[in-house]
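Record passed on here:
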Amino acid sequence: MHITRTVNAEIHYEDRGEGPALLLVHGHPFDHTMWQPQLDHFSRTHRVIAPDLRGYGATPLGAYPDSTDLGVFAEDLTDLLDDLGIHDCVLAGLSMGGQIAMELYRRHPERVRGLVLADTFPAAETDEGKAARNAMADRLIAGGAEAMRGYADEVLDRMVAPYNTHAAPHVHRMMCATDPAGAAAALRGRAERPDYRKTLTTVPFPALVVVGRDDSYTPVADAEDMHALLPHCALAVIEEAAHLPNLERPDAFNAVLETYLRSLVRPS
């Protein structure tokens, strides 16, 4: 992995291939290896950057130990693009990564020339959701690595459909390896996220929304709602997948993403 040290963070990331930039933003509680099938496939045609977000994988939590809001993640990614000399990119995020992608576009629309939102949703958190995220953050801080493993055991069948046994070990390892403090800080910050629905109506370029058919966290109906908000958007439902279709059905996910990337024409 590569490391870039900005004013605010020490970001560890993969940087593979040449061509138009494709920035992949992982979800919670994972790391950049969530995107391994896409790193392998798209680095043939694109410069693919897949960072570990602050508090996940090899990237330390840094100066936001209690709560890391989505704006902090978005600015980390913008700093990374600056350090790599990349002006704009196709930005793809899954779950929390999709919300970070929406936040980055909201702050810096000139840095995004394509937007891929996978298994995510744009609405602000409900009061019930805020309470649940903060309670889970407290649980992870109190219980440490043991609590992180317990959480991974509880949610694995929702992250990966039970019939996709090939993807489960990797997903479980990522979750168990996540720093509880980093996960808790992100949960608290994510609970306070803004509503991105109006932001999505302003996206001027083609976008792509992807969702697993059996995703219970962000069901197909949520994806359809996002698709309706985006002025120029394709919607792809990946069959036989839950919350992580890029790992559960990588060939199908890659085919959809490849079609989208080919549809984007960079102005001369």
